């Protein structure tokens, strides 16, 4: 969910909805399922974020902030599970670039051949592989691993 509006053009209700859908929903979903996982010390929590959760973009202040919140949620939850000695519960945060989902319908996206819009099935395949191999972070496309390393 994103408004695609600059900060002062974005109505408050859209900012709140973006935060609710992209950040707060992770809290409620995790609180619903984590107790059973903790009882068994087994499970896997996947947080869907975005590359916008790793770097900001003009015209996407609400979206980037909400996805930064999702990344922070993942990082804090992972640390909390370690401190609780719940090493059987794995976590993965997924940070894709633009994905060909209905959310992009009608949006004007400036992309290049170097960074094309991702196919949703490729994103699903990457998520499944990450869960099966217990990777804690998935950046798509892989170019972003280098980019984030270079920016540090």
TrEMBL record:
MF terms (GO), sorted A to Z: oxidoreductase activity, acting on the CH-OH group of donors, NAD or NADP as acceptor
Pfam family, one: adh_short
InterPro entries: NAD(P)-bd_dom_sf, SDR_fam
Entry GO terms, CC: lipid droplet
Record-given protein name: Oxidoreductase, short chain dehydrogenase/reductase family protein
Organism: Oesophagostomum dentatum (Nodular worm)
């Amino acid at each position: 969910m994103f408004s695609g509006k600059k900060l002062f053009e974005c109505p408050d209700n859209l900012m709140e909805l973006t935060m609710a859908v992209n950040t707060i929903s992770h809290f409620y979903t995790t609180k619903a399922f984590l107790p059973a996982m903790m009882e068994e010390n087994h499970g896997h929590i996947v947080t869907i974020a975005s590359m916008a959760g790793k770097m900001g973009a003009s015209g996407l202040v609400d979206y980037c902030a909400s996805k930064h919140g999702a990344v922070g949620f993942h990082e804090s939850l992972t640390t909390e599970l370690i401190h609780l000695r719940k090493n059987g519960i794995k976590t993965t945060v997924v940070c894709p670039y633009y994905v060909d989902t209905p959310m992009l319908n009608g949006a004007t996206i400036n992309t290049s051949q170097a960074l094309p819009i991702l196919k949703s099935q490729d994103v699903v395949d990457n998520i499944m592989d990450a869960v099966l191999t217990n990777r804690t972070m998935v950046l798509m496309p892989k170019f972003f691993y280098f980019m984030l390393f270079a920016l540090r």
